[in-house]
Design goal:
Helix content: 55-70%
Strand content: 5-15%
Number of helices: 24
Distance between the termini: 46 Å
Number of strands: 15
Structural class: alpha+beta
Strand order of the largest sheet: 10-12-13-15-14
Largest sheet: 5 strands, mixed
Radius of gyration: 32 Å
């Protein structure tokens, strides 16, 4: 609890060299070290948020230690729910020791029951250290921290590990995995920091409504540290802006700006001025936008040079959208000069593709040239294009080099210098070929990294499953022990009363029967989860074959379009993967997207049609996810694909009664008999996992939900051609 009366903060500073340090320049920065402990027993206080009025930020570790970038004269702020917020003006670079009077730690038993408490902390510290430089090592350390918690982990520690894993995925833009782990952390223990991380991940994926759902309850929290309150307002502004609600977005940005100004959080003051300006620009209120952009430009100059350049470019983009090319050119030239003063960061040559959001001199030169071209000042544009090409070549930035080369060719063509235009265009064609090869390599590297990350994530998931299994075994052993004790009592009571003994025997039989039913239900749920986990990789493997086919044909445009639709499909599949039943409307949307993808591969093989009776309320029926897809896949791949003429796939949804729905999947393909005859010997030896899993799932679901699903498969025509699949679905 927040004890305002009894908690006092003492700052103990070493005095040697203080006077000499005060005379240093006020803008000199250094790494300030310190500790936060209880005054009476020197208990380390972890989780204390330490910040400066210049925007530096740190958190104390399990030993109560922190390191932060600061300078003489900066205001140091200590914030925690354990004591009152305290501010201290830095007068030297000596270490700071913070002592909290009457501190009683509520977290002393944080790792009670864990055999490796100290190792847990070191693993998380190592994960934080490697977060930005080696994602695989960082994930490994988080996994090790979870493994130290044992079979009955402390919820706070488990939530902290899962949140750390979510933050790692966030940094590396693996937003779906970040969302999964933030959710798991929330299940273990709800926390404001975790909620803010989850909302940020939703914003990054464009799921603004979900971000709002996470953030709205946080508004009711009264005691929240200022930095988190600023972050809350900023994320609410981002989510409303994403939804196009500019008025609400401006309200939250303005509220966050007031808090940031009050608490002197300089970087956030700059960021929020910039976001307010961007929101006004989005609403076509250019006068207000320019006013706030001017504020952000002034404020950014008080921060790092890199931040100032970033803001210059953002405002220059605003000038470009407003057709103020002269102001844009002037500001970008200023950015170019400032960028040349910064230490040059070498671009890794093995990557080949530079981040599209990065600010580099070649990009700025390219944008300056475009501004001159917009003013039809082609002679002024040519030197900037040529410089952009040279710099992009030296930095191995193929994207800018390609775009600048193409633009230069167009400029030469417009000026009538067709020889130079032709030569430049040839260079452009060569760059496109090189870039295509690089992109293929990048896709291969990304796929390999994703596989490695998935393996490590599965390891963490298996740790959770093993822990759940151990807890189930413990519960079962406890139940058996209780039954044994009941049997002993029953034997004693039989001696005194046969009637009472018979009653106890019946009671024990009832408990045994109920235990068996519960065990059977648990086994069915585990089997369903296992079958779903097999179906998703099976479905992904077949879909990736389609992508591979486009890449093999060098059809980059269709591959990109297919991947875009496929990513939407995969997100829907993954969202539904943990559910036994989903609304039929969602399943039909997924199927239509899947058929669309397959039709894009085989447009000359089949057409399709989905018919849903008008009076059906499909939202009132639930269906197991991915139940219909394997039947449709079989119809396309084994029936229609081998048909000489163009075939037709038809999906009908009809309501037989108020409680019964019928779904028909009809194809006029070659039929099951001919399809089986076309199989190779190797294919005949292998059984379809997809259809086998479907049959198992239906059997388990019917056992659990009293014959909810019925499926029949037959030939469509008397000559054994075509296939008809009828699925009947009962309402709950």
């Amino acid at each position: 609890m927040f004890k305002k009366t009894y908690i006092i903060l003492f700052l103990v500073l070493t005095t040697t060299g203080v006077l000499a340090q005060v005379q240093q320049r006020a803008n000199a920065t250094f790494e300030l070290k310190g500790t936060v402990r209880g005054k009476e027993d020197f208990t380390p206080i972890s989780g204390v948020q330490v910040s400066t009025d210049k925007g530096s930020y740190a958190t104390t570790n399990a030993l109560g230690e922190f390191k932060i970038k600061a300078g003489i004269g900066d205001l140091l702020i200590f914030e925690s729910t354990e004591f009152e917020t305290v501010r201290h003006r830095i007068t030297s670079d000596e270490d700071i020791s913070v002592q909290v009077e009457d501190y009683t730690s509520n977290s002393k038993s944080t790792f009670q029951g864990s055999r490796s408490g100290p190792n847990y902390t070191s693993y998380l510290d190592s994960a934080e250290h490697y977060k930005k430089i080696d994602i695989e090592k960082s994930i490994d350390f988080v996994a090790q921290s979870i493994s130290t918690l044992g079979n009955n982990p402390n919820k706070t520690a488990l939530a902290k590990s899962l949140r750390s894993l979510g933050e790692i995925y966030m940094y590396h833009k693996q937003y779906d995995l970040a969302i999964t782990n933030f959710k798991d952390a929330q299940k273990a223990q709800k926390n404001t920091k975790t909620s803010l991380g989850l909302a940020e991940a939703y914003i990054k994926t464009g799921e603004f409504e979900k971000a709002n759902e996470v953030l709205q309850p946080l508004l009711k929290i009264r005691k929240m540290v200022p930095y988190q309150r600023i972050q809350l307002c900023e994320e609410l502004g981002d989510s409303h802006k994403g939804l196009g609600e500019t008025s609400k977005a401006l309200e939250f940005y303005q509220e966050g700006l007031k808090i940031a100004q009050k608490n002197q959080v300089s970087p956030k003051v700059t960021d929020l001025n910039s976001k307010i300006a961007d929101t006004y620009a989005m609403a076509n209120r250019e006068i207000e936008a320019e006013g706030y952009f001017n504020n952000s430009l002034k404020l950014s100059k008080q921060e790092t040079p890199a931040r100032a350049i970033q803001e210059n470019e953002k405002v220059a983009d605003f000038y470009n959208r407003s057709n103020r090319y002269g102001d844009e050119i002037q500001l970008r030239k200023k950015s170019l000069n400032e960028l040349q003063q910064l230490p040059k960061k070498a671009v890794a040559k093995n990557k080949g593709l530079v981040d599209a959001d990065s600010i580099t001199s070649q990009r700025i030169n390219y944008k300056i040239a475009n501004a001159y071209i917009a003013q039809e000042k082609l002679d002024e544009a040519i030197p900037y294009l040529e410089k952009s090409i040279v710099e992009a070549d030296s930095e191995d930035d193929l994207i800018v080099q390609k775009d600048a080369t193409r633009k230069l060719s167009e400029v030469f063509e417009f000026k009538g210098d067709f020889a130079k235009a032709y030569n430049t265009y040839q260079n452009y064609v060569a760059l496109v070929d090189t870039l295509y090869i690089r992109k293929e390599q990048e896709i291969a590297r990304a796929a390999r990294l994703n596989r490695e990350i998935a393996t490590k994530q599965n390891r963490i998931s298996s740790l959770e499953q093993e822990r759940e299994l151990s807890q189930s075994k413990y519960s079962l052993a406890l139940t058996e022990q209780q039954l044994f004790e009941e049997n002993n009592k029953r034997q004693k009571w039989i001696i005194y009363s046969l009637l009472l003994g018979m009653l106890l025997f019946a009671l024990a039989a009832f408990f045994y029967y109920r235990s068996n039913r519960q065990q059977k239900l648990a086994n069915n749920l585990l089997a369903l989860k296992s079958l779903r986990s097999q179906m998703n990789p099976h479905f992904i493997f077949n879909a990736l074959n389609s992508v591979n086919n486009y890449i093999a044909k060098s059809d980059e445009r269709n591959a990109n379009r297919f991947l875009s639709d496929f990513s939407v499909l995969m997100r829907t599949v993954l969202e539904n993967s943990e559910e036994d039943f989903i609304p039929l409307a969602k399943e039909l949307e997924l199927l239509e997207l899947y058929v669309k993808l397959e039709h894009s591969r085989f447009p000359d093989k089949f057409d399709y049609e989905v018919n849903i009776e008008k009076d059906i309320d499909i939202n009132s029926f639930d269906i197991p996810p991915m139940l219909l897809q394997p039947y449709i896949e079989n119809a396309i791949w084994h029936g229609l694909r081998y048909k000489e003429q163009k075939g037709f796939l038809k999906i009908n949804v009809a309501q037989l009664t108020n409680e019964l729905l019928q779904i028909e999947i009809l194809d006029n393909g070659i039929g099951r008999k001919k399809s089986a005859a076309l199989k190779t010997e190797n294919q005949k030896k292998q059984k379809s996992k997809g259809m086998g899993n479907i049959r198992k799932r239906i059997a388990i679901l019917n056992d659990m939900y009293k014959n909810k699903v019925a499926v029949s498969i037959s030939d469509l025509q008397e000559d054994k051609t075509g296939t008809k699949v009828i699925l009947k679905l009962k309402k709950d």
